[in-house]
Amino acid sequence: MKIIKTLLLLFVVLSVFVSCIQNGEDGDLSLLQGTYVIAGNCYKADYGTLSVLENRNSDDSRLIQLPLIRIYSTSEKPSEPVFRFIGGPGGPNVWTPSTVQQYGLENLPEAYLIENHDLIMVGYRGVDGSVSLSCPDVEEALSVEKNPLSAENIQKLGEAWYGCFQELEASGVDIDGYTVVDVVDDMEAARTALGYEKINLYGSSYGTRPAYIYSLRYPESVHRLFMFGVNPPGGFVFEPEMVDTQINYLGELWKNDPECTAKTPDIVATIKTVLAGLPVQYESVYIDPDKIKTMMNITDSLREPQDIAMLFDAFVAAEQGDFRGLAYLIIYYDLGIPSVLSNGDYPSKMVSADYDSERDYVTEMQDSDSIIGSPVTTLLFGHMEYGGWPIAPISEEYRQAQYSEVETLMLNGIFDMATAKAESDILPLLKNGHSVVLKELGHCRGQESSQPGAFQNLVESFFMDGVVDDSQFEYQPLSFTPEITFQEMYDQYAHPFGF
Q1: What's CA 375's distance to the chain center, in Å?
Q2: What is the DSSP string of 85-109?
Q3: Which of 2, 90, 119, 414 has its CB 3.0 to 4.6 Å from that of 71, i.e. a possible disulfide?
Q4: Nearby residues of 363 by Cβ (< 8 Å), 6 or more positions away
């Protein structure tokens, strides 16, 4: 019987997501009842398709379809529903139970909210739904043997992105309809279609940007806004000074740990020395400094405690002649970075929001006086001078922080490079704003998972009563001892595949 129920559930899910696209009107929502399985338990849910205009500023815009899932609260009298905005850009915002398993999770991270709220997931246009901004040529341009940050490769990347832009437009896609503001309007259309008067917004990482803009654009629709790992306006650009500040902060923590200083008295000096004297080759791996710097910048290596520990351990090992850890980072780049996200979606969201045509990103982000510069910003914005992704910018009012009376709570980790900008730019303009900054924690993953009980208590106390209760968080000093090293990962994963 359990197998039959599971098969019926799969049939219900598939019947919604593979249903024929119907002609309708902007804001039309079709729903099919089903169940959502969380940790083996079934919850009542709706699976739907929301029809929205591709470009709301165009008189002859076509409709596109976005998936939607509503998981009903188990409460008889639920509080305001929670609309979630998760990270990216380039990743999905709608997670089916199979998606949760695909990500290697035992549970939907926001499942605890169902006790008091309906939980709504609305697809991100450009990733979820009927239009995917996929760019295979960009994957190829990122898959270079060496020096991805060179002017030559940045030009190739810009030409590849521009070629994809042209192909998508030739196929009927209106690129100007794929901005953060359009995502916000999709959420408002979903709120209206579902019949909710006011909603709570739950944003993490990139998702904090559309969540924040939603609170500015539709304040009358918002009950409360919670953001963690906040990405403020301008936050898609990581200035080299921000990266250096982060590395130097970690370096000071290293100096305060006798076990660390016994390995090397100054980890920042070690990083500089190693990067300046890298070998050309380690076994069959070309030791590319651009790829190492990019992986330090693009992953959570400088933002999450265990990743920081693994990274610094790899540099200590490299200073002693063992380059396996850094070689693993390069293998990781080659296998994952070119295809990790929907690579037409993130330029759409980032360029339209934060790109400044008067800046020379290639030169500025590779400042020779910086420790590693800002490789990610070089890749994501430097290509624009070679064609890149010529999307229209969003309205200037949403490219900067604004005054807001919406009840807002920001949670950030001290290791998160955008923390200072969020605190200085957004917080002073929030009449009903609150901020919690956690010491020795980084971006979203650490905040959510290192002390889950404290995190959930903070979120629910705020959503339910407007109370900021961070009393359950306990200070956890940063440990520079990794549970597993990049060197061990190189041995486990590189040699079996013949690298």
Answers
A1: 17
A2: E-S-SSS-S---HHHHHHTT-SS-T
A3: 119
A4: none
Helix (H) or strand (E) holding 183: helix 180-194
Answer whether 13's CB lies under 8 Å from 96's CB.
yes
Instruction: Return the structure tokens found at 239.
Output: 């200035």
Q: Distance between CA atoms of 308 and 257, rounded to whole angstroms?
A: 15
Residue 246's contacts (CB-CB under 8 Å, 6 or more residues apart) are: 302, 303, 415, 417
Long-range contacts at 451-455 (CB < 8 A, ≥ 24 apart) = 451/476, 455/411
CB 389 within 8 A of CB 348: yes
Q: What DSSP state is assigned to residue 231? A: -
Question: What is the bridge-based pairing of β-strands 41-53 and 29-38?
Answer: antiparallel
Spatial strand order of the sheet with 433-438 comes to: 29-38, 41-53, 63-71, 119-122, 82-85, 199-204, 222-228, 408-413, 433-438
CB under 8 Å to 24, separation ≥6 — which residues? Answer: 51, 63
Distance CA 251, CA 246 (A): 9
499 residues of the chain, pLDDT tens digit each: 444 344 344 444 444 444 444 458 999 999 999 999 998 999 999 999 999 999 999 989 999 999 999 999 999 999 999 999 998 898 899 999 989 988 888 889 999 999 999 999 999 999 999 999 989 889 888 888 899 999 999 999 999 999 999 999 999 999 999 999 999 999 999 999 999 999 999 999 999 999 999 999 999 999 999 999 999 999 999 999 999 999 999 999 999 999 999 999 999 999 999 999 999 999 999 999 999 999 998 755 677 888 899 999 999 999 999 999 999 999 989 888 777 656 899 899 999 999 999 999 999 999 889 999 999 999 999 999 999 999 999 999 999 999 999 999 999 988 887 888 999 999 999 999 999 999 888 776 777 788 999 999 999 999 999 999 999 999 988 899 999 999 999 998 765 444 4
Distances (CA, A) of 448 to 228, 281, 440: 9, 39, 14
Query: Which three-class secondary structure state does DSSP give residue 182?
Result: helix
In single-letter form, the type of residue at position 86 comes to I
| Pairing state between β 41-53 and 63-71 | antiparallel
Q: Render 362-405 in DSSP notation, one character per residue.
A: HHHTT-TTSSS--HHHHHHHGGGGGS---PPPPPGGGGS---B-
**Residue from 163, 57, 174, 72 nearest 113 by CA:** 72
Instruction: For the beta carbon of residue 452, count every other beta carbon within 10 angstroms.
Output: 12
Length of the chain: 499
